[in-house]
């Protein structure tokens, strides 16, 4: 339900899915702030989309994240939605040291899991404060179908996205401890994309397709994914809250399978998921 979103921060929004989300939210009349590492890309996007706000920083520079978050919240005290989307993907074999450059494993973990964790830590208190005062607040975190159905071609990526899935679950449980207003107004939404045609896998697409052979399948066109994303976003829960996951294609299958299995275990524990 996009009507609950007034001001949205998209972290990692200058390419791929992130950029298209920025464009669609902007077209819907939302106040959009976008971050990225590349100032030229941010400037070009701002010149095209009137009123777009930009902030340039690297999410893997952990020492500066708190100050960047504080600056954003000072400039936009009514920020009600944060979408954490930035990430990288590598394909390698644990048995072939030459298949990945030194330091790339650490860099993938830093971008895909450590940085999102620190960003949640930086923005969650603000969003909770809004929610407890009756203002709808939303945190989107982007995982992947590979976070629920890991594959050996992308071992570290799969593991980091499984970590994002766990963060979404545990954050919802912590919100449940914060009281009824928080539970009602603070939605945590896990974005679970399928294989989408972006530049995420450009370094290794040919090699991974060759490795899969006849089982290789084509990516979903980016605009098709965005259309389905926003259609699903409007399909709210019975209580009017946003869906806990936005899964498209194989992402929807993975989410439903998880809900029908481990989701039922959580219900037995009486825990929010």
Automatic annotation (TrEMBL):
One Pfam family this sequence matches: adh_short
Top-level taxonomic group: Eukaryota
GO MF annotation list: oxidoreductase activity
InterPro entries per UniProt: NAD(P)-bd_dom_sf, Sc_DH/Rdtase_CS, SDR_fam
Keywords, comma-separated and alphabetical: NADP, Oxidoreductase
Any Gene Ontology CC annotation: membrane
Protein function: Putative oxidoreductase.
Family to which the UniProt record says this protein belongs: Belongs to the short-chain dehydrogenases/reductases (SDR) family.
Protein name: NAD(P)-binding protein
